[in-house]
Hints:
The protein is mainly alpha-helical. It is built from seven helices and no strands.
Amino acid sequence: MSRRKWTLFVADMQEACSKIADYTSGMGFDEFCADSRTVDAVVRNLEIIGEASTGIPEENKLLKSDVDWAAIKGLRNRIVHEYFGLSLSVIWAIVQSDLPALAQQLREWPTESYSLLKTISPIIVSARLRRHRCGFGKHLQGFAHRAFASGD
């Protein structure tokens, strides 16, 4: 476990989402595919989002159950371990469809979670965490499982 505060990992994820939006602003799919630097920058920041997500304690992730944490981590793992199978059309779809929603969820999170953490007892969090961990073995939903559907 990292010595950094978990909120810094959320900030890392927010920054990576912002960078990706900046890098791809005004671009179409064909321009994206033709610009290897932008592709590399986007993929790197998707990797950062996934890596940063692992620094957030499970009990804090429960407070944002609308975020598909397993898919985010799964995408990171696929980028790192199966980089040769990336589908640019799927990466583009993630950037256009899933990332704006994730960025919004992350922007709303810090103030919500501090107040929620104070109201949820440790026993309830522990029970929810045990139940949540049981679901990690399920098929990845969200954007991670699509990233390698076809090689572009």
